[in-house]
Amino acid sequence: MLIASPTGSNICGRCIDQAQQIVKDESPGGSKSFRLFSSIDEIPKPLVIKSHLDAYVIGQEHAKRAVSVAVYNHYKRIMVQEDVQDVDLEKSNILLMGPTGTGKTLLARALASFLDVPFAIADATVLTEAGYVGEDVENILVRLLQSADYDVEATEAGIIYVDEIDKISRRSANASITRDVSGEGVQQALLKILEGTVAQVPPKGGRKHPEQPLVSINTKNILFIVGGAFEGIEEIIGRRRKKTLLGFSTFDDEESRLKGADLLQVVEPEDLLQYGLIPELIGRLPVVAALEDLTREALHAILLEPRNALVKQYQKLFELEGVELVIEEKALNAIIDDAQRVGTGARALRRSMEKVMQDIMFDLPDWDGIKKCMITKAVVTDGKQPRLS
Q: Which one in 76, 314, 328, 347 has a CA-CA gap of 20 to 30 Å to 203?
């Protein structure tokens, strides 16, 4: 719809909204505005979401597709839940499984950035049951509220990423008669906010007390993404599959083909139960996506291709000093070799790059008349000086 003015100019409703938002953002004390979808047409399609994730996360095709579909369905469910009376559309929380450094946190962060919704990260290992020393599970919601600049409506459509979920597995698959306040107890505490409840949280965090004003947050539309390395679960999956396939000649061939992330792709709820997650928590994480170990080719692409690629970042830092940074292919391969020895995925790449570039970056501001810096293999492996020209 276009609105005509007496002077003959026209403006559409969307432009009016954007102009109003500009005034709000530029005014003193203006707060950040988050996107609140008003129709299904405004929700990015799975293909669009995945294309954005491709710019930040290398590889992990299966995980990116699964997350894109789950997120699209989640916000579509929010839009139509009041109109749909004959079917209960349940929330599709997501479980990401994969070794450390494969991009679980980056995937969640890139997703929230693209959707322009509030986002918070929590570490499951520091959570305890209410009343015990540690951090209450509901403090996760406080972080989301703070990232939304205390906008409750935006908070209730945000995304929370809970890392290290595998570290709060109970001590065994059998119910324990002793208290496990940072394991099974935390899993129990997570159940309500994962499924949907109205939680009363202190806006500044910390423990609740009677004199403190509380904020009501409905979690039924908050998308929870939980991630963990789940070290050793491959053995549990292998034992289950061995029982199923025992006596068939295909077993050895099948097991030799299914390794790492391929084996995680066939994870079943009973495997997670054996690992130590409680059945109720497993039931609230219907979407399971496995991330694979990063290959040498993937590590090479991570160095060069994403928008936040390490080489691009250093080249920009050098450019700000008026120096062109060039890294030889053999030097890149040496950095990858060093990272693979450490074995923590993409995190090891940053460590290796920092080790190589630290002394060079220290001297960079004092270089006079230098226009080009060439990093060779000898710089990486032997600590030699770079070639300057």
A: 76
Helices 346-363 and 296-304 cross at an angle (nearest 10°) of 40
Assigned token pair, 74? 């989640």
| Helix/strand/coil (H/E/C) assignment for every residue in 307-356 | CCCHHHHHHHHHHCCCCEEEECHHHHHHHHHHHHHHCCCHHHHHHHHHHH
pTM for the model: 0.77
Contact 193, 122 (CB under 8 A): no
Give me the sheet containing 159-163, strands edge to edge.
Answer: 119-123, 159-163, 223-228, 94-97, 287-290
Beta bridge partners of 325: 373
| CA-closest candidate to residue 370, choices 326, 328, 312 | 326
Name the strands in the sheet holding 372-375, side by side, starting at the edge strand that comes first in the sequence: 324-327, 372-375, 387-388
Cα–Cα distance for residue pair 255/149, rounded to 1 Å: 50
What CA–CA distance (Å, rounded) separates 42 from 347? Answer: 35
For residues 102, 64, 104, 296, the Cα torsion angle rounded to the nearest 10 degrees is 10
Mention every residue, 6+ apart, whose C-beta is less than 8 A from residue 10: 2, 3, 4
Name the DSSP letter for residue 87: S
Whole-number Å distance between alpha carbons of 49 and 69: 9
Cβ(142)–Cβ(200) under 8 Å? no
Q: Are 70 and 174 in contact (CB under 8 A)?
A: no
Q: 321: how many CB neighbours lie within 10 A of its CB? A: 14
CA contacts within 13 A on the Cβ side of 326: 10
pLDDT by residue (tens digit) across 143-202?
Answer: 999 999 888 989 998 999 999 998 888 654 555 444 454 577 888 888 888 988 898 888
